Amino acid sequence: MGGIRLGPKLVIATHNPGKIVEFGGLLAPLGVEAVSVADLALPVPEETEETFEGNAAIKAEAASLATGLPALADDSGLLVDALGGDPGIHTADWAGPDRDYGLAMGRVLSGLAAAGAVTSDERRASFLAVLALARPRHETLFFKGRVDGHIADMPRGTGFGYDPIFIPGQGDGRTFGEMTREEKAGGADPLSHRARAVAAFIAALALEDR
After folding, report:
1. Number of domains within the chain
2. Is residue 58 part of a domain?
3. 51-93, pLDDT tens digit by residue?
4. I want to staple 61 with a disulfide (CB 3.0 to 4.6 A). Which of 120, 134, 136, 198 is the partner?
5. CA 85 to CA 126: how far, in whole Å?
6. Does residue 144 belong to any structural domain of this protein?
7. Catalytic pick among 75, 81, 86, 163
8. What's the predicted TM-score (pTM) here?
9. Which domain holds residue 54?
10. Residue 60: inside a domain
């Protein structure tokens, strides 16, 4: 594919089952075999950076080094304005060691209540996703996707992570948790932050191919 050569196989550097399924669907147009680090029984590297880019790079580079294959990793999070940008890079940590996102959403809602944030404007939030593509003997590349919106009064729906409390600004008033995967990720301008980051990645491959 032009200057960015992926080969027939791409490692998805995540152990998260939800992300593995989502990435599988988003990357289908590339025509490459996607295999996760969970499938390969690779360990989870410690994320020690203070930026989404830094932590995505740690995961992608570790997977690429271990396999000798191109590897794609994401680091993503929810940024709530009234909470000073939290949970941010600690988005998963707010769910605790058992990854209880009911607990995490409760922390967000409690924080907004304590801040007196009632209106949609006062409850502004964004989802940000950063993809890192690591390849042997190549510089790591980054691709970003962002969606702005606000936090609902209470969880609605059953989506992944914080989806049940996030209402995208370009949507119809439903939370991500009330939408199907196709509604979030489909179309020329997808609502999902991760879908937007993958679209930027695919667009870069197409650009390199021209």
Report:
1. 1
2. yes
3. 999 999 999 999 999 999 999 999 999 999 999 999 999 999 9
4. 134
5. 9
6. yes
7. 75
8. 0.86
9. 9-209
10. yes
